[in-house]
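Sequence of site-specific DNA-methyltransferase (adenine-specific) (Halorubrum yunnanense).
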Amino acid sequence: MAEPILKWAGGKRQLLDELYARFPASYGRYHEPFVGGGALFFDLEPADAAINDANPRLIGFYERVRDEPEALIERLEAFDDPDADPDPSLPYHEETARGRDVESYYYQQRARFNRRPYEGAFDPLEEAALLLYLNRTCYNGLYRENADGGFNVPAGRYANPDWVQRDRIRRASDVLAEAAIRNDDFAYVLDAADPGDLVYFDPPYEPMSATASFNEYSADGFDREDQRRLLDVASELDEAGVRVVLSNSGVMYEPYADAGFRVETEDATRAINSDPDSRDAVDEIVATNVPPEDRGSAGQRELSGF
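Predicted 3D structure, token representation.
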């Protein structure tokens, strides 16, 4: 069984049973326009699938997992402890591209990862390795970009961080082998999905309050207008005979119910929060156009912890 390789805000490990419960008993191709950490995709292991995300570095990572798993593992094995001194044989061992002092090995690798947004150059394999290394050693496993697209999460504190993830990379590579991987706006699915296909939408959530926003996964963000566009896309897919399952925050209950989707509220615990004691259950909706009589009975496979 494949498992997610990356920690990712909004991951759906704890919601898999509820999502599977809305899946149709049979469907054509599987589409996931907001793949993120891929908890559902890797658990499902679909034989015919297309995944997409707006973050180009995330998509580049999945392409390298699919196409060069052993080379990626080899790069990851070469990294040092995040608290070690910067490597003088690598760039940015003294200061970043923006002239800031480099305090440790972690911050040197963060500066190397930010070559693409700050300098317009990158090596795809090295960038993929750096993404996983930073994901497993940064504060709280958080992915966040500033307005310029630079990854800006500080170092975390871990006793023995495992950034190589050999087994997960190899299993994920097998699942991704036949999948189409895209870096587009989510609306591409209007042209890609055929009647009878299944689309699962897991967008950056509409905030529960004015101060609850956490959609800085990429510099472009995901705003209220994007939420409206997504509702329009889901409605068009429904009219075209495409099966749709969607998760979002509880404040989106009425818009999807008013559009004719079957909507139910579920409790989900947030996987990423600066205070582990504050990772409480929050209202989350699951909306679908799949009638109860057309749904299957497949359940969640067990996922181990990170």
